[in-house]
Design a protein that fits this description.
195 residues, Leucine Aminopeptidase, subunit E, domain 1, alpha/beta
């Protein structure tokens, strides 16, 4: 599609839905950072920071379930939950995203010897599912940093390092987007991605 000179599809998308976009400058522009509402993104997959039942909850989990509609919870019910650090995929239903990848982050302090490994697993397993389902673009929220209490700086470092280290040998994932709803997480990710 032809756009006005110098504009990309993503520029128009973010302007249209009113999301503040700050392009990060890492891995040949493979990683981006935005502040906004993940449920509004027109990407192949958004990641849901889910609880182990996958049946909806508070925060981003509740927002995704509300925006997707009742069909999402019906499909999630058939998945019979998800273990911490693992991921499962569903359709996006009423969301602009084609898929929702549900991952369960660790509750900070519950299993200290495994929590970092589990949080890394959330990102790795979500990216793996994205590749298996031919997703070119994937958007992540700030997993485990809300009610689950993971320190935001530590969680951001794990997230960014996991995205950078993911062995995408076929370069099938063109864009990893970190979506921050709050200013504090946004500032932390911006500093990490610009360093």
């Amino acid at each position: 599609m032809l756009w006005p000179s110098g504009l990309r599809t993503s520029d128009l998308l973010f302007r249209t839905i009113g999301i503040n976009q700050d392009k990060t400058i890492n891995m040949n522009n493979r990683i981006e950072l935005i502040r906004g509402d993940i449920t509004k993104l027109q990407v192949d997959a958004i990641v849901n920071a889910a609880n182990s039942s996958l049946l909806g909850g508070g925060g981003v989990d509740g927002a995704i379930h509300r925006a997707a509609g009742p069909e999402l919870v019906a499909e999630c019910r058939a998945l019979h939950g998800c273990a911490t650090g693992e991921a499962k995929i569903t359709k996006g239903y009423k969301l602009p995203a084609k898929y929702v990848i549900h991952t369960v982050g660790p509750v900070f302090g519950r299993n200290p010897s495994r929590q970092e490994e589990q949080l890394k697993g959330c990102y790795y397993n979500s990216l793996k599912l994205a590749v298996e389902n031919n997703c070119k673009t994937i958007a992540f929220p700030n997993i485990s940093t809300g009610a689950y209490g993971y320190p935001k700086s530590e969680a951001a470092m794990i997230a960014v390092n996991a995205a950078k280290a993911f062995p995408d040998n076929n370069n099938s994932i063109e864009k990893v987007i970190f979506v921050c709803f709050d200013d504090e997480n946004y500032a932390i990710y911006k500093k990490l991605l610009n360093s």
